[in-house]
Amino acid sequence: TLFRSNTGPLLVESVRDHRSDTGLLDSLDYDCNLDDMQEQKLSVDPIHARRHARSLSVLRFVLTLMIAFFIAMIGYGLYTGLDQLCRLKFDLFLNLLTEGQTWYAFFFLMFTCCSVNALAASLITFIAPEARASGVAYVLAYLNGTNLSRYFSLRILIVKVAGLILTIAAGTTLGLEGPFIHIGACVAVAASQQLLRPLHFLKKYAPVLRNIKEERFFISGGAAAGLAVAFNAPIAGVLFAIEGSFAFLTVSIALRIFLCALFASLFANLGYSNFRPEVHRHSIIERVDNHTDYSWMVFELIPFLILGVLGGVLGALATWINLKVSKWRHHRQEHGPKLLNILEAVIFTALTVAGIFFLPYLFGCKPVHAQCASTQSLESHCKQLFCEPGHYSEIGSMVFSTPESISRILFDRTILLAHDFSVVPLLVTCAFYLLIASLVYGVFVPGGLFVPAIVIGGLFGRCFGIGLAMLLPSASINTGVYALFGAASMLGGFTRLTLPIVVMLVEMTDDAQYLLPIMICTMTAKILADHLHSPLYPGHMALEKLPVLGEKLPKEIEKMKASQLMIRNPKTVRVVERLSSLVN
Fold first, then answer.
1. How far apart are the C-alpha atoms of 16 and 542, rounded to whole Å?
2. Half-sphere exposure of 469 (CA within 13 A, CB side)
3. 3-state DSSP call for residue 394?
4. SS3 label, residue 244
């Protein structure tokens, strides 16, 4: 719709003007598209109507179950496959280091990561540009009411999964958990739209199950299931779908979303347990402690607020950097050749690899202590790398890991303060991850910001906990717990989500006793970040020129009169109209 005031300024521009390169975007049509004959038949025959309703309910449940199963199996395959690829790359690199071939190890790492990420960028650039980044902005815009069905096609799903494997295997700082929300939405569309095609006896139900209204419900459930599988947090997935759906949410819809997230998490855990009777819980952040509870004191409310302030400031800073770079990136994509997208991905990969390789040389090595279980494992916080036997690289133990492995190291609560990380390496790693993650997000490769935000928050949270433990040695401060609080504050400041973040961290870590501190850190960070800078995902929606209804009307519209929005001689059509009159 085009609104103009008497003075001439354009208040709401035409969507066609915004998206002239990709066609017209319109809002979702929530009217059920049953034809008149079917509606008349159902109203005349109540018994048939009840049978029809029961059959539809069964089909909706079966489709929800199948969507959950497919999302869970994709998640299981991605996690297990990427774990093997990352371990293989680390072992080959470590063998070169132990043989004293340092430069061969560097060039091996550089060539492998750059070539793999170049392949991922090529897939995104030439086959499915919509599959880049996390895709959370597309999901939120769709849930808000904008018809973006073509952003959830089977082509985008295949390219997204393949590109995500290559991107994470290349060792970028991006995470694979955020894109699972987009992957879940794509699976939901593919399953609900394609599975009914070969089943001709279900053809009469297709008009109902394949309309826009049902598609939106399936996409909501798929997005919730994607987050549930990524973090093993089904309730957080449901809250994400509910928080993203600003309207048209009923109890029955919430139940379908909950069932999809529940079964997706169940199937994923069965896969990680190799489908054995004993089901093992899987999470990217596993609780590593000595099974002792840590009770927080009342005075720690002040450190919680300080962590929230740090998370809000850093989240707003990262958002500002990313949106500035993304604005330049969008301008370049409109006027520059497509090969620059691949070159940009290779350049940022090279910078990441160079930082990971040379940062450990700045801080030297430390003697191995009693809590170093292994110096050759990918999950070890005492990796030997280029150090002499009996020593390990402190900062190398963090950067030479996947983001998920770094999270587990940072949240380890068994490390004594005497054997804990030094403050300076933690701060340097935090600054490195913050800068690289802010710059890389939006490059033509798939990847999300949930896990990078957890890593950044865990780094400055653990650093803050170490400083507080040194300042108050009698207070029993656990630095691993403060890493959790730092992650909560960074997630709140970066993503601006509240309920999903709080519940997600509690579900991942099984730490319900820290619910209140996590809430304090998350809310403080979100409130401060909102005052400092606009949110990240709405900013990317604006760059993509996706129309989204906000919570409040613009001030200009509140002052407008009805006469400013209407015309005197509107064009009308009759209920029954000739095609020639419509064309003319």
1. 15
2. 23
3. coil
4. helix
**Position 372: which residue type?**
C
Nearest to 402 by CA among 227, 174, 181: 174
Question: Looking at the predicted structure, is the pLDDT value of residue 34 above 60?
Answer: no
Among the listed residues 480, 458, 474, the one whose alpha carbon sits nearest the alpha carbon of residue 414? 480
Alpha-carbon dihedral 6, 9, 14, 17, rounded to 10 degrees? 140
**What are the CA-CA distances from residue 310 to residues 9, 72, 449 (Å)?**
40, 35, 18
Amino acid type, 198: P
Structure pTM? 0.85
Nearest to 66 by CA among 203, 170, 209: 209
149 neighbors 215 (Cβ within 8 angstroms): yes
Which range (212-226, 244-258, 415-429) has the least confidence? 244-258
Q: Which token pair is 370?
A: 């009693």
In order of 156, 219, 353, the CA distances from 244 in angstroms are 22, 12, 36
Distance between CA atoms of residues 66 and 60, nearest Å: 10
Comparing CA positions, the residue from 220, 221, 235, 231 lying closest to residue 69 is 221
User: And the tokens for 558?
Assistant: 């509140």
Pair 206, 34: CB distance under 8 Å:
no
CA distance 17 to 23: 9
